[in-house]
Amino acid sequence: MILLDGRTTSEQIKKEITEKVEEIVRQGRKRPHLAAILVGDDGASQTYVNNKEKTCAQVGFKSTIVRMAENTTEERLLEEIRRFNEDSDVDGLIVQLPLPKHIDEQRVIEAIDPRKDVDGFHPVNVGKMVLGLPSYISATPDGIMELLERYKIETSGKHCVIIGRSNIVGRPLANLLSHKSIPGDCTVTICHSHTKNIKELTLQADIIVAALGRPGFLKGDMVKDGVVVIDVGITRVPADNKSGFRLAGDVLFEEVAPKASYITPVPGGVGLMTITSLLKNTLKASGI
Amino acid sequence: MILLDGRTTSEQIKKEITEKVEEIVRQGRKRPHLAAILVGDDGASQTYVNNKEKTCAQVGFKSTIVRMAENTTEERLLEEIRRFNEDSDVDGLIVQLPLPKHIDEQRVIEAIDPRKDVDGFHPVNVGKMVLGLPSYISATPDGIMELLERYKIETSGKHCVIIGRSNIVGRPLANLLSHKSIPGDCTVTICHSHTKNIKELTLQADIIVAALGRPGFLKGDMVKDGVVVIDVGITRVPADNKSGFRLAGDVLFEEVAPKASYITPVPGGVGLMTITSLLKNTLKASGI
After folding, report:
1. Is residue B40 part of a domain?
2. A190 touching B, CB under 8 A?
3. What confidence tens digit (pLDDT) does each residue in A166-183 have?
4. Between A127, A159, A171, which is nearest B126 by CB?
5. Chain A closest CA to B58's CA: distance in Å?
6. Residues B249 and B181 in one domain
7. Same domain as B175, residue B95
8. Are residues B146 and B260 in the same domain?
């Protein structure tokens, strides 16, 4: 069993990006520039945005964070987005989600210039991804594709069973893995809350992506020997430690890992990969 | 075994649309208006465009056809598209595909105002469809969804195996049928040329969509009793008759039909449904 190590892999990607940035700066070109808008004072969102800022600094990107009050109007937010859309120094623009309830999230996503939409949430980018055209791929699916690629996991002709049909993980991944590409060319089955015979399906799978958000859902008797397991779950469950909780994946690791050929740990797997997509997309948006 | 009758169903939909158009005209509002651009003189394309024009007249739509020479430049075509984009009388705009080789098809598709893209090919519409947002759904997937809906075929929790991953049939259908919707909520498996154990998968299927373009591919021993079969194939094969050919589906009808609960004939099934999507989308684009 080989651990798909999100920490080492993301560090490796950051190193590669840092080198690219150094090279373009040496050539006298501008640093890639990521702008982030944060509305309100949700603790988790602040942490995410701060981490993104830190990682940008680490790889040599310029970053700008605009913090707006919780009661900001949608119109004010859209104005701010327009300003960044028009600012030619800004390559990538993200609006941290979720937004306060009085703001229409979809309208905000669609207001971002698709060419700067490094989160890959704009319908144009989703559509291009689905059609197999160049696009910005969103964080989690892209992180998983990177892991599969860097660990040289054979995907062509393999049966991949994806549990969970969310717009940010299961659905884009089903589209990516069924494309004529590397990684790709999988036979893909997408399962969800209405699926009746899930165990029958997972037992057939060469690759399983668990992305339903139910701790320990995938058990040892649901997988065959040699399976590749990608665990996207990351749920806080009560634990007898200092913080009072631990992070639990959708996979019952102790049962599944012994049967797996490759498996992502939680934490330390997919979660750590999500930042790399943002960096890669911003680099791409800057024209490199 | 019940035949999913594309002829009767599409006639029924046309009748419903005709009534809606009559009603809005009675209210003094303008008729829905579809514009079509045809470049070159491909025989099949001319037939398709003429049929679309005829059907528009039949349901009371206004239609405009612009015929451009085979050697039209891409720039001239884009100009024509811009003109229709800006013409507020035109609700829906289609450019008949394929285009001559010197014209970039994707660029042309993306030049159409997504609000008038009644073929549903623009990445924005594809993206919205995938995300489950209101959009224009393209002809064949929409026609299949209509058949499933009008024949009240239970899809929730059913395992649908789709053979073929094309951007115009298999892929959009996989996305539509896996959505939380009616029809929908299927467990969906998407198969293609790299799939190894196709028979093993089709034998598990409650619903099979054959969209690979290989006459007679799906045989009797590949399906279970009671299966619902949608045959998207429509290939000309040599035949000993006046025209010298007949239209063959991807399903070996004589073997599969006796085992099926519902099945589409070829011809007379899915093919006849494709026009209805164009009409429905144009009606929607006109604000009805």
Report:
1. yes
2. yes
3. 999 999 999 999 999 999
4. A127
5. 33
6. yes
7. no
8. yes
Predicted pLDDT at A288: 79
What is the pLDDT averaged over residues A195-203? 97
B-chain CB neighbours of A179 within 8 Å are 165
Query: Do the chains contact at A126 and B127, CB–CB below 8 Å?
Result: yes
**CA–CA gap between residue A67 and residue A35 (Å, rounded):** 11
pLDDT at B42 over 90: yes
Q: Reply yes or no on whether B96 is catalytic.
A: yes
- Residues from chain A contacting residue B156 (CB–CB below 8 Å): 194
Model pLDDT, residue B52: 97
**What CATH number does residue B34 fall under?**
3.40.50.10860
DSSP 8-state assignment for residue A259 = G
- CATH of residue A220: 3.40.50.720
Measured CA to CA, the distance from residue B250 to residue B263 in angstroms comes to 12
Could you report the per-residue pLDDT of B168-224, keeping only the tens digit for each?
999 999 999 999 999 999 999 999 999 999 999 999 999 999 999 999 999 999 999
Please tell me which residue in B5, B91, B96, B231 is annotated as part of the active site.
B96
Residues A34 and A101 in one domain: yes
Question: Do B267 and B143 belong together in one domain?
Answer: yes
Write down the pLDDT at residue A56: 98
Report the residue from A123, A187, A194 with minimal CB separation from B131: A123
* From B127, B174, B192, residue closest to A124, measured CB to CB: B127
- Is the predicted pLDDT of residue B288 greater than 90, yes or no? no
Burial B158-177 (b: 16+ CB within 10 A, else e): bbbbbbbbeebbbbbbbbbb
Same structural domain, B198 and B244: yes
Phi, psi dihedral angles at B209 (to 5 degrees): -110, 115
Contacts of A165 in chain B (CB under 8 A): 178-180
Same domain, A181 and A75: no
Is residue B241, in this structure, part of any structural domain at all? yes
Considering only CB atoms, which chain B residues are within 8 Å of A122? 127
> A264 φ, ψ to 5°?
-90, 135
| Residue A286 falls inside a structural domain | no
Q: How far apart are CA A2 and CA B159, in angstroms?
A: 32
Rounded to two decimals, what is the model's pTM? 0.97
* Confidence label for A21 from pLDDT (cuts 50, 70 and 90): very high
Statement: residue A142 has pLDDT above 90? yes
Distance from CA of A180 to the nearest CA of B (A): 9
Full domain range(s) for residue B103: 28-113
Q: Which residues of A are catalytic?
A: 52, 96, 119
Q: Indicate if the pLDDT at residue B247 is higher than 90.
A: yes
- The reply to whether B115 touches chain A by the CB within 8 Å rule is no
Mean pLDDT of A270-287: 96
Q: Does A178 touch chain B (CB under 8 A)?
A: yes
Residue A272 has a CB neighbour count (10 Å cut-off) of 19
Given a cut of 90, whether residue B261 has pLDDT beyond it is yes
Task: Decide if B157 and A125 are in contact by the 8 Å CB cutoff.
Answer: no
Kindly tell me the burial class for residue A45, based on how many C-beta atoms sit within 10 Å of its own C-beta (0-12, 13-18, 19 or more).
Answer: middle
Asked if the structure places residue B10 within a domain, the reply is: no
The answer to whether B195 faces chain A, any CB pair under 8 Å, is: yes
Strand order in the sheet with B207-210: A2-3, A260-263, A227-231, A207-210, A159-163, A187-191, B187-191, B159-163, B207-210, B228-231, B262-263, B2-3
Q: How many domains does chain B have?
A: 2
Q: Could A127 and B122 be called an inter-chain contact, meaning their C-beta atoms sit closer than 8 Å?
A: yes
The chain A residue lying nearest B196, using CA atoms, is: A157
To probe the interface with A, which of B104, B106, B124, B204 has the most A CB atoms within 10 Å? B124
- The torsion angles phi and psi of A260, rounded to 5 degrees, stand at -85, 150
Instruction: Taking residues B264-282, report their average pLDDT.
Output: 97
ipTM: 0.96
